[in-house]
Design brief:
about 400 residues; alpha/beta; ten-stranded mixed beta sheet; about 45% helix
Amino acid sequence: MAKIKMTTPLVEMDGDEMTRILWKWIKDILIEPYVELNTEYYDLGLENREKTKDQVTFDSAEATKKYGVAVKCATITPNAARMPEYNLTQMWKSPNGTIRSILDGTVFRTPILVKGIEPYIPTWTKPITIARHAYGDVYKNTETTVKQGSKAELVVTDKDGNETRELIHEFTNSDGVLQGLHNLDNSISGFARACLNYGLDLKQDVWFATKDTISKKYDHRFKDIFQEIYDNEYKEKYEALGIEYFYTLIDDAVARVIRSNGGYIWACKNYDGDVMSDMVSTAYGSLAMMTSVLVSPDGIYEYEAAHGTVQRHYYKYLKGEETSTNSVATIFAWSGALRKRGELDNISELCDFADKLEKATVQTIEEGIMTGDLYLLSKLENKKKVDSKTFLEEINNRLSALV
């Protein structure tokens, strides 16, 4: 068959460790034989981030704003142990955090369901999409240690130099710690619109939850902005589709989620979304079976896997040992980005190819061919564990039959 041609480039962000190896194999085996791939390439591997003093991360985000669609490999966020390993001059910030901040995006994570892998919560028969606000809160905090006898105040100086002070705490009897959080109305508004637009796209209910009974100004601000935007811009559209926007407290939301059947979008503040996306993905079976897409309020998309760089498998790979690494989420990152590029550029063949790539991937697993993590989870009677590259080749066997 003739390769599918692309017009507008796709922003390609390469990454680290085992996922970087899988990245190349996925392109070589599953994409480039079928698609005349047109990408603007950025190497976000830790060595290149060090070499460019992290400028490459900023450049990749700006390119994403220019072209509208990106696909990203998993990357290392370095800790102290990584400093000597990679000869780093500093512990560079999370590329994901930097990109999210520049794009002002909301992260949507959805489990990939396959036969044979049953959720730990039996009632979850449909996927639950976690929408995580990707700005502010603890991820942009300011914090310090406090000595006994100190008094801490929250001080705001307006543009005219006037101060407003609120007592935080008097550390009379003990040393302590202090943390300052912030958020922005325009970011919260972007978060709300991204979630409510996604609900329209998927034709699914949107739930939002905070703890406004305790955080009467900070969390309540989120609640009020969501409600105002919904009432003014989305209510009629939602009612026409027979879907709803629903607000509740975060602890009530957790109880409702556990009792539900799934099939909705659960919008969470930054930290809540960080935690709940891992909880939901694990309860469905595997973090490696979780799609992740960053969506900005103005319609920019960045697709990635929800998991990390699979460090332990990478060290085995370097020793020449066999690995059986699950590449499904990374494959779906590519298929999601290709489909969105096809939608925006009106290339139906590219959208069809993305659908068939996902179908071939699911079909491979449901026919009993899978990586080690899925082998341990699958309830299929006839199943076979294969190595990382063989899994991709098995997918290609089915993909080639579909295209």
